[in-house]
Amino acid sequence: KYDNLVLSPSSISLVLAMALIGAQGNTAKQIKEAFHVTNQNDETIACNIGALNRPTQGSGVTLSTVNRALVSDDFRLTEFFRSTLQNQFSATVENVNFSLPSTLEAINKQIEKLTNDKIRNLIPKESLGASTKLILLNAIYFKGNWLKAFDSTKTRVRPFYVSPNHKPIPTKMMASRNYFRTAFIKEANLRALELPYSGSQFSMVILLPNQLNGLTHLESSLSPKLLSLIDSKLNKIQMDVVIPKFKLEFSPDLKSVLRSVGIVDLFNTDADLSKISGSKELFVSDAFHRTIIEVNEKGTEAAAATAFRFIARSFRRTPFIPKFVADHPFIFLIRDNRKNTIRFVGRFCKPEKN
């Protein structure tokens, strides 16, 4: 059984990369292996991932991302770690008193403001205190208007097929006849659709399994190689597109997710984060992440925040108009085409009943 899901790989990667700068030994090795960059030094990784922090502001599209380091008043960062955060990640470094209840409220208010009021109370109550020495934080906000907006008068309730054995759910579906880039990928038994945002630097890519119950196979097949194959086969044709309007919010158990990809030492007392303060006293006790996305006729609005708490195929033209009807579970990506980076990724499995 699948549930709806949405994450921001960019946000998680930025906080992980900031932690990597302070890591040594096996702790650093595990993070680099998860990034698949074992042949690069830490500074190169920081430079490459830190580049994701640059904002984008154009006609119809906004992308902002902010990094922060909140340091306990009684804790000192090494000059190396502080300067790298500031120079490579454009991070603001601020001293705070984690023992004060007002500090938690202030941090959550910062996150709320940075995400245009989308991410609220990321860090739970009673998560801070005197034992908290450092919080590394990233917040990302995206708002993009479709290059070709959907006509709201054509939005109507249609069936969405959750699974072969599940009764269809009536769902508000948007419709448009226009020219879009699409592909049929025989190797992965899927259809792909690209929906560009204004300016075309960003686009949503929908990966729709050909089979109603094909999501499991699709997820297991996802890889950079498959995404490159899809990109190479996208071809612009006139077609009818039908996709659901939706709004998702998701908060994963980020520690478990990162442990599952081999990042283990960071979260226990074996952590070597000595480049942060000069000693091996720190480890990450909590990792928080939340993402919200809303897709409608005008475009998409999405936001995410991540915080680590440290303690001591192609179609050919045919006489008819092809259709792309996303009426069963699919995967979606919001991609920065210029930087070849996935900013948000998710799966839509089950709409709310209208």
UniProtKB/TrEMBL annotation:
Question: Where does the record locate the signal sequence feature?
Answer: 1-28
**This protein's record includes keyword Methyltransferase:** no
Family label: Belongs to the serpin family.
Name of a matching Pfam family: Serpin
What would be an example GO MF term here?
serine-type endopeptidase inhibitor activity
What is the protein name given in its UniProt record?
Serpin domain-containing protein
Annotated source species: Daphnia pulex
What CDD domains does the database record attribute to this sequence?
A: serpin (cd00172)
Q: Which UniProt keywords apply?
A: Protease inhibitor, Serine protease inhibitor, Signal
Output one GO BP term.
Answer: regulation of immune response
Q: Per the record, GO CC terms?
A: extracellular space
Q: Does the keyword Signal apply?
A: yes
Q: Which residues form the Serpin domain?
A: 1-351
